[in-house]
Amino acid sequence: MVKEARLMALDVGPEARLDPDTEAYFAKCQEKLGFIPNVLKAYAFDNTKLKAFIAMADDLMLGDSGLSKLEREMIAVAVSCANHCHYCLTAHGAAVRQRAADPEMGELIAQNYRAAALPPRQKAMLDFAVRLTEAPDKIEEMDREALRRAGFKDRDIWDIAAVTAFYNMSNRLAAAADMKPNREYHFMVREMVREEEGASAAGAPVRASTNRRGEAPQAGRRRRRAV
Amino acid sequence: MVKEARLMALDVGPEARLDPDTEAYFAKCQEKLGFIPNVLKAYAFDNTKLKAFIAMADDLMLGDSGLSKLEREMIAVAVSCANHCHYCLTAHGAAVRQRAADPEMGELIAQNYRAAALPPRQKAMLDFAVRLTEAPDKIEEMDREALRRAGFKDRDIWDIAAVTAFYNMSNRLAAAADMKPNREYHFMVREMVREEEGASAAGAPVRASTNRRGEAPQAGRRRRRAV
Amino acid sequence: MVKEARLMALDVGPEARLDPDTEAYFAKCQEKLGFIPNVLKAYAFDNTKLKAFIAMADDLMLGDSGLSKLEREMIAVAVSCANHCHYCLTAHGAAVRQRAADPEMGELIAQNYRAAALPPRQKAMLDFAVRLTEAPDKIEEMDREALRRAGFKDRDIWDIAAVTAFYNMSNRLAAAADMKPNREYHFMVREMVREEEGASAAGAPVRASTNRRGEAPQAGRRRRRAV
Amino acid sequence: MVKEARLMALDVGPEARLDPDTEAYFAKCQEKLGFIPNVLKAYAFDNTKLKAFIAMADDLMLGDSGLSKLEREMIAVAVSCANHCHYCLTAHGAAVRQRAADPEMGELIAQNYRAAALPPRQKAMLDFAVRLTEAPDKIEEMDREALRRAGFKDRDIWDIAAVTAFYNMSNRLAAAADMKPNREYHFMVREMVREEEGASAAGAPVRASTNRRGEAPQAGRRRRRAV
Amino acid sequence: MVKEARLMALDVGPEARLDPDTEAYFAKCQEKLGFIPNVLKAYAFDNTKLKAFIAMADDLMLGDSGLSKLEREMIAVAVSCANHCHYCLTAHGAAVRQRAADPEMGELIAQNYRAAALPPRQKAMLDFAVRLTEAPDKIEEMDREALRRAGFKDRDIWDIAAVTAFYNMSNRLAAAADMKPNREYHFMVREMVREEEGASAAGAPVRASTNRRGEAPQAGRRRRRAV
Amino acid sequence: MVKEARLMALDVGPEARLDPDTEAYFAKCQEKLGFIPNVLKAYAFDNTKLKAFIAMADDLMLGDSGLSKLEREMIAVAVSCANHCHYCLTAHGAAVRQRAADPEMGELIAQNYRAAALPPRQKAMLDFAVRLTEAPDKIEEMDREALRRAGFKDRDIWDIAAVTAFYNMSNRLAAAADMKPNREYHFMVREMVREEEGASAAGAPVRASTNRRGEAPQAGRRRRRAV
Q1: Which residues contact B6 (CB under 8 A, 6 or more apart)?
Q2: Which chain C residues are within 8 Å of E114, Cβ to Cβ?
Q3: What sign for the dihedral angle of Cα B146, B152, B154, B159?
Q4: Pairs across B and C, CB distance < 8 A
C-alpha cells in the first residue's frame, strides 16, 4: 500500500480527541468520499478550530444561496488559480469536475477561467472574484454594479464575496502550512464524458451542457462535503 | 443625534431573529464596547453565517495561543494595511492602540510596520504575514524557517498563518460590501500616553514599553470582543 | 518629559547655522504648531536644500491654486497611502483632519480614499493622483480628459500633478532616511466633531459637511505651514 | 461523435497545402498521438511559419541537451503556470504526466512547482525559469551562478533559458489567439500509478521515483512529438 | 582598434562549422550591415538552433504581412521596452530609426510608445502588444475586438501576436545570457533628419512624415536582415 | 526651419514675465546649451514654481556632494527608465552620455543598468535607487547597510535618496503633462568615441574608462545646467 505522505510542513501536535459531532462528520466523509479531506486532518489538532472551519465552509459551499453549488466551486477554483494554491486547486478542481460532470471544465477554471467561454453571468462572477482576490482595495461601486447587471441580487453578491474571501483565507493557510491534498482528488472524474451518457445530448461539447446556473442536472444528486 | 450612516453597500435584507446565544453576545458587546461592531450587524441577516464568523474570530483572536492578543491584532492590522482595508484598519487599529496602551503603535502598524522598529520576533512575524498576504504562492520552507529562527514554534506558525489568512478573508468581504466601521473606533485610545501613567517608566518612548511579547502589562485586564 | 526619538536613520551631521529667513520660519512654526516639523530638522544640515524644499512645499500647498488647501492635503495623503509612507501619513493625515475639521475624513483618506464616498470632483482628482503614483508611464490623454470632465482646468491639472509628484518625492526621501514624524501629529484633531459645533448642522455625518471644494468653512482661518 | 470545437478565436484563412515533409510529420503525429496537435493546425495556414515553429520546438524539446526531456517539459509547464496558459498547461501538463509516468507530478507543476518538493537541481531550474518569466529585466549574474551551483553547465543554462523563452512566446501566441488544446490531452495519463507497476518499488510515493534527472526510466522509450 | 567585448555571460563552446547556407547568410550580413549581429554569433554554437532562429525571425520580420516592416520593428521595440531588454532595444531601436528614417521615433518607442502620439492604428497595435507582454493571461475577446476596430484583419492580429510573442522569447534569452549587442547599432541613424532631405516636406516634424502604415517612403529600398 | 512641437499637453497659460535672475539663467542656458530646456519653459508660467524647481534641481545635480555629477545623472536615468519617462530619459540620457564622454553608457543606463557591468559602488547605488523607486515602502535598514558596505557615507545616502526622489517627482510631472523634451537632446554625444581621443587609452572599451567615481576625466570641464 502507498504510504500517506506527510500532511503538512508544520508539526502542530497530535490529533485532538474529536467531539462526537465531529467524529460523526469524519465518519460520513469516509463513507461518502472514501477518505477524510486532509484540511480537516490538518485542523484536527484542535476541536474548536476544526468546528469553526467546518461550520463556515459547509454553510458557504452547501447552504442556501442564489449561487449554485457548482458556481461556488468555480469561485473556489478561480481564486485558487490566481493564488496558485496546490491544495485547493486539487480538492476543488475535483469538485468542479464532479459538480459539472465535466472533467474539462474543472481543468479550464483551474488553468484560466477566461479561456472557458463562460456564460455572461458566470464570467461576471469570476471577474469579480479574481479582481477581489488580486486588488481588494480597488473594488468600487461599479464592480458591484457589473454583478447586478449580470443578474445577481445583493444577497448573491454577498455570497460571491464571501466564497471568494473564504478561499483567499484557505489558500493562505494551505500555502503557509504547505498542506498536501489527498491523492484521491487527482484521480476523480477524469474520464471523458461521452455524449450519450453525459450531460449533453446535443452534439455540442459537454462543457456547454450545463443548465442556467451552469450546473449539470445530476450534480445535485449526491450530497457531498464542502471541504 | 448623529444618524448612523448606512452599514454597507449591499442590501442583504433585514436582520434575522437572533439566537439567544447571539443575542447575549450582542448584549455583552453593547455593555463592554458601547456598541455592536458593524461587521456583526452586517452578518446578522443570517444566524448561521454570523455564528460561524464569531466562532472563528473569537477563537483566533482571543483563544489560547503562543501569540499574545496584541500580536494577533498587529497581524490583523499589518494585513489590512497591505490590503488597504478601511473597515479593519479602523476597528483593529483601535484594538492595537488599546492592547498596546499606545496610540502611536497602532498608527505605525496601520501605516507601515517596517517603520515601527519592532523587536526581531514581531518583525519576523509581520514579514511573514505580509509576504503571505501579497504572494501566498511564493511561501517556501525558508519562510517558515525564518519564523522558527525568530523563536516561534510550529503551533505558533499555524496561528500566525491562520490570523493572516482570516484577515485576508475579512478584508475582502469588507471591501466587496464596502462595510463601514463604527465611528467610535476612530476616537478610541487617541490621547498621548504620559510616561508616569503609561506603560513605560524608563524615559524611553512609550512604544518600547511592552513586555517580551510586545503587550502592555495592563492590556489583559479587560476582556474584549475579537471583532 | 518624553525624550525625542532619533530623527532619522541617517547621520548627516549637525544642523547648519540657519539663515535669518529660515530661523524666522522655524520660529513661526514653533509659535503656530508648537514644534518644528521633523522633515525641516532633517533637512537643516544644509541651508540650500532646506530652503529649496520649503520654497517648493509652501508654494505647492499654500500658494494660489484652483485646488483648495484641503484638496492638496488629500492628494498628499492619498499618495502617501499608496506608498505606505509613515512620515507623510502622520503629518499630512493630521493636516487633512484639521483642514476638513473632520478627524474621520483624514483617517479615511489615509486608509483608502475609495471608501470615502467623495464627490465626483475629488474622486477623479484622487483617482488621477494614485494612478500617476502607481503607473506614471501609463498616463494618457484620456486620464487628463477625465479630470477636465470632472471640472478641472489645465492649470488645476498641473497642480494635481505637481502635488502628486511632490509627495512621490517626499515619500521616498522619508522612506530612504526612515524619517520619524513629530509625535504631536498623532494627537491632533482626534476628538469627534459634534454637529452643533462642527461643520455640519444638517444631521448628515460631518464628513459630508464640506463646501464645494470639500473644505470646512473655518479651515482657512488659521494659517499653517505646509510641511 | 463529438464535434471538434473551433481551433482559435482568429480566422486566419484555410489550411495551406502542406509540404510533403510537413504532411509526413502530421501523419506521424496522427499515428503516434492519435491526433494532430491543435497548435500545428493553427499554424497550418502558412507553411513557412509552421515549419519554423516545428523546427524550433522539436530541437528545443527533443534535441540533444544536458536537460532531460522531462525537465524541459517541467519548464514548459512551470512557465505556462506563471502565465496561466490554458493551451500549454493542457498539452504540456499531459507531457509531464507521461514523461514522469506520474499523473500527480504533472498536476503539481501545473499548479505550483514550489509545492512539489523537487530535488535541488530541478528546484533551481524552475526558480530560474519562473524568475526569467516574471522579471526578465532583473536577471543578473547571481541568478546564473545559482544554476551553476546546482550543477548546471553554461550550455545547460542556455537550454533552460531557451525553453523558458520559447514558452513565453507560445503562451502569448496561444493567449492572443485563444487557442484550444486537443481534448485528448485532458484524459492522458490520469490513472493512479500503482507501485508494483509504477516507476517506484520502494514504498515512497511515485513522484519520488524518478532517476537523477527526474525522469522515469521508461519515459525515453517512446519517441514523441514536442508539441 | 577597439577589442570586441565578450558576446554574452554564458560559455556555450566554440562556433559550430556553419552550413553553407548559413555561411552565405553571415556573409550577406557582413556585406550589408558591416557586421554579423551578435545574436547570430551567440546561436552559432549549434547549426540547428541557429537556422531555426533565423527562419522564424526572417519570416516574422521580413515575410509577407499586413503589417509594414516598420510596424513589426515598432512592436519589437515596444515589447523590449516593457521587458527592459538591452540587446533588443539597441538592435531593434536602430531598426526603427532606420525604417522610419527618423532617429527620434526609435527613441520614442524605446522609451515609452505612449508619448509618441501615434496614429490610432499603431497605438492600438502597441497597446495590444504591451498588454500581451505584461498580462498574457488577461487577453480577452475585447482586446482582439479593439484591434479589429482599428482596422486589423484577423491575419494581421496573428502577426501582431506572433511578433510580440517572438520578442518576449528573444528578450528573455538575451537577458538570461546577458547578450551584448554589436556596438555599431548605437551609432546608426542618429543624425537629425532635415526637412528638405527627410521624409517630410511639409514643415511638420519628421516623425509625422510616414505613410499610412507609418513607414517612411524610402525605407523599403534597402533590404535588411531581420536580426 | 523645423517648427517646435507643442511643449506639453496642458495649456497652463502664457509665460510669466521672468525675474531678472531667471532671465539671466535662461540666457546662460541658451548660450551654453543652445536652447532652453523645455521643462523650464513648461514651468515658466509661474516664477515662484520655476525658481523653486531650478533651486532644487541645481543643488541636487550640481551642488557639493560625495556623488560625482555623472553618478547623479546615472541615478536620474535609472529612475526614469524604471518609470519609462520619455522626457527625462531624453534629457538626462544626453547628460550621462556627455558626462561619461561615452554614448553607449547613456544608452545602457537608459535601457537597463543591470546590463552595464558597473563597478560595485555604482551597482549598489542604482540597485538602491530603483528599489526606492519601485517599492519605497519596503526600504529597510539592510538597504542602507548595503550602501554603507559599498563605501557610501550617510551623507551620500541622503544624496542618492534625494536625487532618486527628485526624479520620481519629475518623471510624474512630465508624464502627467506629457512634456516633450527639446529635440536637440536626441542628437547630443552620439558619435562613437575612438580610443585615441576618448577617455580610455588602454585598449578596453571606453565604458570602462571612467575614474573611481565613474566620471570621465574631462567631464568636469564644461559647466552645465542641471535640467
Answers
A1: B180
A2: 137-140
A3: negative
A4: 75
C102-113 confidence digits (pLDDT tens): 989 889 999 999
E12–D85: do the CB atoms touch at under 8 Å?
A: no
Q: Looking at the partner chain, which of D10, D128, D175 has a beta carbon nearest the beta carbon of E154?
A: D10
| Phi, psi values for residue D5, rounded to 5° | -70, 165
Does E13 contact chain D (CB < 8 Å)? Answer: yes
Q: What gap in Å lies between CA B57 and CA B63, rounded to an integer?
A: 9
CA distances for A52 relative to A56, A136, A167, A181, B22, angstroms: 6, 25, 15, 20, 15
Report CB contact under 8 Å: F173, C160. Answer: no
Q: E89 CB contacts (<8 Å, ≥6 apart)?
A: E77, E80, E81, E110, F111
Buried b vs exposed e over B153-165: b needs ≥16 C-beta within 10 Å? ebbbbbbbbbbbb
pLDDT digits (tens, 9 = 90+) for E146-180: 999 999 999 999 999 999 999 999 999 999 999 99
What is chain D's Cα-based Rg?
A: 18
What SS3 class is residue A74? helix
CA distance F133 to F119: 21
Cell numbers describing residue B209: 514599553
φ, ψ at D225 (rounded to 5°): -65, 155
Q: Is C35 exposed, middle or buried (0-12, 13-18, 19+ CB in 10 A)?
A: middle
Alpha-carbon distance of D100 to D219, in angstroms, equals 7
HEC sequence for C88-141: HHHHHHHHHHHHCCCHHHHHHHHHHHHHCCCCHHHHHHHHHHHHHHHCHHHCCH
Q: What is the DSSP string of F86-125?
A: HHHHHHHHHHHHHHTT-HHHHHHHHHHGGGG---HHHHHH
CB-based contacts of B112: which residues, under 8 Å, 6+ apart?
B81, C84, C85, C86, F137
CB B107, CB A143: distance < 8 Å: no
Query: Exposed, middle or buried by CB within 10 Å (0-12, 13-18, 19+), for C21?
Result: exposed
Cα–Cα distance, F82 to F171 (Å, whole number): 10
Task: Give the pLDDT means over successive 10-residue stretches in chain D (227 positions).
Answer: 70 94 96 96 97 98 98 98 98 95 92 96 98 98 98 98 98 98 92 51 32 42 45
- Residue E150 sits at the vertex; the CA angle it makes with E147 and E156, to the nearest 5 degrees, is 50
Task: Tell me how long chain B is.
Answer: 227
The pLDDT of residue B182: 96
Tens digits of residue pLDDT in F34-68: 999 999 999 999 999 999 999 999 999 999 999 99
Instruction: Kindly report the backbone phi and psi dihedral angles of residue D10, in degrees, each rounded to the nearest multiple of 5, phi listed first.
Output: -105, 135
Question: Higher confidence at residue F138 or residue F211?
Answer: F138
Dihedral in degrees, nearest 10, Cα atoms A143, A144, A147, A151:
-150
Q: Which residues of A touch D196 (CB under 8 A)?
A: none
Q: Give Cα F127 distance to the centre of its chain.
A: 16
Q: What angle do CA E46, E47, E51 make, to 5 degrees?
A: 125
* Contact list, B139 vs chain D (CB under 8 Å): 114
- Exposure of D66 in the CB half-sphere (CA atoms within 13 A): 18
E124 Cβ contact partners less than 8 Å away, ≥ 6 residues apart = E146, E147, E149, E150, E152
Calculate how close chain C gets to A146, using CA atoms only, in Å: 17
Closest residue in chain C to residue E127, using alpha carbons only: C138
* Cα-trace Rg, chain B: 18
Side-chain-side CA neighbours of residue C12 (13 Å): 27
| Pair D182, E143: CB distance under 8 Å | no
